[in-house]
Design brief:
This protein folds into 2 domains: 138 residues, no CATH class; 107 residues, no CATH class. The protein has 249 residues and is an all-alpha fold. It is built from 9 helices and no strands.
Length: 249
């Protein structure tokens, strides 16, 4: 039964991942989510069902439009694959629980923010406003301690990003995002999330610079790393902090 549920949740993630791509690519551009229907951005041809199968359609067409041959961004299959994988992780790590539901919602936010930030260097307020009440309610229901721990997590999350947003290097979207993520992870786990985000961003950014993929001084979106750091902290923060404290005592 576990395998059946895992497969179903993964497939659900792949399907929703396709929709999340639409949200991430249309909302920042001020476009409708429903009109026009899914179409090739190169020739404008409306896509049929065979063109919209998560991952498989992209692979079958070799990453190109069947009609005009225009390149289809890898963000589409990667967004779908990431959502499916994160949904599966949420189920395997937390099961069919409220924490599992929170992980799914957090994963959904992470995918949308990542795709939008990679494409536009922008984290849409509309997306954050949609997820904020959902995550607030789930956080209150899942609270494993006093509510002030989570409120402090939000304050610290926003406060950490404030100097970077004020003096440049990050945007207000990053601040709002990490305040929301800090609400979910709580304090002091939010600090671990920020450390993980910085470490991953530095490692990947440095590697891309060394390989010439990223030019020195080229702006890099930090929202994806904040999201990944928060997911790691949400899933394993208590264990990591507990393990660290046991080493120093």
């Amino acid at each position: 039964m576990t395998i059946v549920i895992a497969v179903y949740i993964t497939l659900l993630g792949l399907i929703l991942g396709s929709f999340y791509n639409v949200v991430a690519l249309r909302v920042p551009a001020g476009e409708s989510l429903s009109h026009p229907p899914s179409h090739c951005t190169g020739c404008g041809t409306q896509l049929k069902a065979r063109d919209l199968v998560p991952i498989l359609s992209w692979l079958a067409s070799r990453g190109k439009c069947r009609h005009c041959g225009a390149r289809v961004s890898m963000l589409y299959p990667l967004g779908e694959l990431a959502t499916g994988g994160l949904f599966l992780w949420s189920y395997l790590e937390f099961g069919l629980t409220l924490r599992g539901v929170t992980a799914v919602i957090l994963s959904s936010l992470a995918v949308i923010v990542t795709v939008a930030d990679l494409k536009y260097m922008l984290i849409p307020n509309k997306v954050l406003l949609f997820f904020a009440p959902l995550l607030l309610v789930l956080t209150l229901l899942n609270a494993e301690g006093p509510v002030w721990i989570y409120l402090l997590g939000a304050a610290v999350g926003g406060g950490i990003i404030l100097p970077f947003a004020w003096f440049g290097g990050m945007g207000m979207g990053d601040l709002k995002l990490f305040a929301l993520l800090g609400l979910v992870t709580g304090f002091p786990v939010v600090l671990l999330a920020f450390f993980a985000a910085c470490l991953l961003g530095t490692l990947v950014g440095g590697t891309l610079q060394l390989t010439g993929t990223l030019k020195r001084g080229q702006p890099v979106p930090f929202g994806p790393w904040l999201a990944v750091g928060a997911l790691l902290a949400y899933g394993y923060g208590s264990q990591i902090i507990g393990g660290y404290l046991s080493l120093i005592h």
